[in-house]
Each structure stands twice: as C-alpha cells, then as structure tokens.
User: Fold this.
Amino acid sequence: MKKQCVLVSGGAGYIGSHTTVELIEAGYDVVIVDNLSNSEIGAVESVRRITGVDIPFEQVDCCDREAFRKVFEKYEFDSVIHFAASKAVGESVQKPLLYYGNNLTSFMNVVGLMHEFGRQNVVFSSSCTVYGEPDKQPVTEQTPRKPATSPYGNTKQTCEDILRDTLKAYPEMKGIALRYFNPIGAHPSAQIGELPRGVPQNLVPYVTQTAAGLRECLSIFGDDYPTPDGSCIRDYIDVTDLAKAHVAAIGRMVGDKNKENYEIFNIGTGRGVSVLELVNKFEEVNGVKVNHKIAPRREGDIIAIWADPSLANNELGWKAERTLDETLKSAWEWEKHLRGIK
Ligand code: UFG
Assistant:
C-alpha cells in the first residue's frame, strides 16, 4: 500500500521538527515547507539524521500563494499539519499587521489550496491562549473562549473560526484544532529542540540559558499571585508527547475515526505546575544552579491554566507520557548540546 503523505508547514521549527520525526517513525511520508524566517535548515538536517530519511524540503513562504501552489502541484499529500506562524505574544502587540498578515494569510492559503486540490485533512496549531484567564480549572474544550488579549491570540481564535466555517461549507474536508498548553523539552536524542533567537521570552529556554551561563539571572515574573506559592501556574507538555498528538490526529482522520469533520482537542498533561516549582525541579533533576530573583509581574500573564485532557485521552487515544523530570532533563541535554557543555 502507498504510504500516506503529510505536508508539514513550519517543519523546521520547534514543534514542527519534532512532529516530523514522529510522523516518519509512525510510517508516514513527509514534505517539509518552511520559509526559515524563524528557524534553521540545520533542524531539517537533524531530522533527516534522526530518521534516516531524506525528507523533501521546500523553502517556501506559505503566504506566497503561487509558490505554495507549486508545492501542491509537485507532491501528492493528503494531509497538512500547519505550524508555520509567528508566535511571540509581546511582538504581536508591537507588530499587529505582521501577525495578522502572516498568520491569517498563510492559513487561508493552506485551506484554500487544500480545497482547490482536493486534499482532505488538516491539523491546525491552536493554543490554550484562546481560553484567556479561565474562571474554572482545569479547562475543557467546552470552557468558553475569552476575548483575545493580543493580536497573536486573536489570530489563533480567528484561524479556528476560519477552519470551523470552511469545514461546514466543505463537508468532504476534515480538520482538527489542537489547543496546546505550554510545550517544553527536546527530543531524547538532543539533536533537535527549541532554538530561540535573541533573548528567550519563554520560561524554559531562559532557565536553560541561565544554567548554561548565557544569562545572568532568571526573573520570576511575580510571586504575589493568588496561587499556593504566589507564582503563575501552567500545564507544561513535553514536545515529543505533543508531536505524538499530531500523529494521533492525522491517524484519526485518515482512519475515518473522527465523529465530526471539525474537532478540537486540548493537548496538555492535566497537571498544573508553578514557575517556582518548575525552576526548583529543573535544578534538582539536573544538579545545576539557576540564578533567579523575584521580579514584577509581566503584563498580560494569565494567573493559572491547566488542561483537562480527557477528550484527547479517550478519543485520540493519546496521553502525555513523559514525566516532568524527563522533560526537564531533555531541555538541559539540548542546551548542553548547543553550547558544547559536557
Ligand atoms: N516566566 C518567568 N520568567 C521568564 C519567562 C516566563 O517568570 O523569564 C513565567 C511567565 O510569567 C509565566 C510562565 O513563566 O507565568 C510561562 O511563561 P512562558 O512565556 O513560557 O509561556 P506563556 O504561558 O506566557 O505563553 C505560552 C506560549 C504562547 C501561548 C501561551 C498560551 O509562549 O505562545 O502559552 O497561554 F499563547
């Protein structure tokens, strides 16, 4: 039987590269499309090394519809996983037009070209950011979405709406939106991982760079929140586990196991961890020191959010498997690999 082929947009990026590895290991063919605007070709080379497969790569901007159309003409994939997007919350406030332009145009092109070429299945990278500050924990897929607090968050909500409406109009197509909680960690091989450009904005890359001596001191943004230790709470999901959720989503659509042609799943562990707990755990499992100090709250931060992942557990047959200890070890192994630390 011919192998199913999946187009992975943003496949050179953090989550895209890990997902490509898992797709290949699950027996799929993959075509990677990436404009390398916030990623490196080295990640594609590492994915080829890990899998032993010479995965085709097209350096194309998904916003360039004509260039993207040529990829649809060239390859016979049935499914698309769309990661390609701008993802920094703070930057989106400074450059809203860039975010609306990139994230909406590329997604419109994905679904538009899929419809034009009769390609069936799409997975969209959504985010728990669509829930805003939830009134009740943990959040289920039924928890109401709150008005977005950043252009980035707004693009996630709008793309979900575009997908919902498109799939209603075209019942021959299928789609799944995965609402990720906080992805962290790296591949067990330490060959791929998160590669932030400049000063990291997210917690774990800042922690690993501080441990590696690249940053002097981690600021913990707020210790006076109404949480047990005063710091914010998140649901940190291992990136390899998250990658496997995409394989499960594709398998569900390819295998005709989906109940509706548009479905939404929370992808988290179900466990809330505070910033202070995470930093202490990182120090403990890796036996390294992370200089840190308490700093003022960061504007726009959600106090606490964690997932109820039972829908994904039951319907996708997917569950987060790696422990927080393993994940934090993998994050440190990756940082050491990058910096040549023994
Ligand atoms: N934090 C610090 N110090 C830092 C960086 C972060 O204390 O140097 C804290 C934040 O205040 C927050 C927690 O660590 O409490 C996690 O922050 P991240 O920036 O790592 O992640 P966020 O939860 O803010 O954002 C992430 C993704 C977004 C996504 C959002 C959804 O980066 O893309 O989750 O809630 F939209």
Remarks:
- The mean pLDDT is 97.
- The chain is about 40% helix and 15% strand.
- Residues 96-117 form the longest helix (22 residues).
